[in-house]
Amino acid sequence: MAELQQLRVQEAVDSMVKSLERENIRKMQVSIPRPRKSTAKVKDRKDEGARPPNGQGLMFRCSASCCEDSQASMQQVHQCIERCHAPLAQAQALVTSELEKFQDRLARCTMHCNDKAKDSIDAGSKELQVKRQLESCVTKCVDDHMHLIPTMTKKMKESLSSIGK
């Protein structure tokens, strides 16, 4: 029974993460601005078709353009590439942090269920009764946390949309 509840949560979280990745994070990779050029010679140069017609891969093109500056030091190129990838790294950190908080809350809830079951066993309750109580408690934890997913998703989408602006 606990495995079924775990699967329910895992499928819902996986679906949420796929949606965030598809609808928000991928778009960030497409719309990250090109780096600021450091030399006047490069500033005057036109954007020689560096952007594909549909805008795909701008984050990677941003990184590639960092390498085009032959006057830049290795450290400057590295910092430029990091700036290109910073919004994506920030987005990934945000999603990871929110998922960890969600997982911690769910774990605390299920630990409470385990503690109640142990207390019931110690008080002399029958094993079958305790097992049913535990399953019911874990199911309630999962149900309660499943209801949090839409709000958590909305919050993350709002936060993701503000990254890099």
Automatic annotation (TrEMBL):
Pfam families in UniProt: DUF842
Biased composition (Basic and acidic residues): 41-50
InterPro entries in the record: DUF842_euk (IPR008560)
GO cellular component terms listed in the entry, alphabetical order: cytoplasm
Region Disordered: start-end pairs: 24-54
Lineage top rank: taxon: Eukaryota
Similarity annotation: Belongs to the FAM136 family.
UniProt name for this protein: Protein FAM136A
Gene it is expressed from: FAM136A
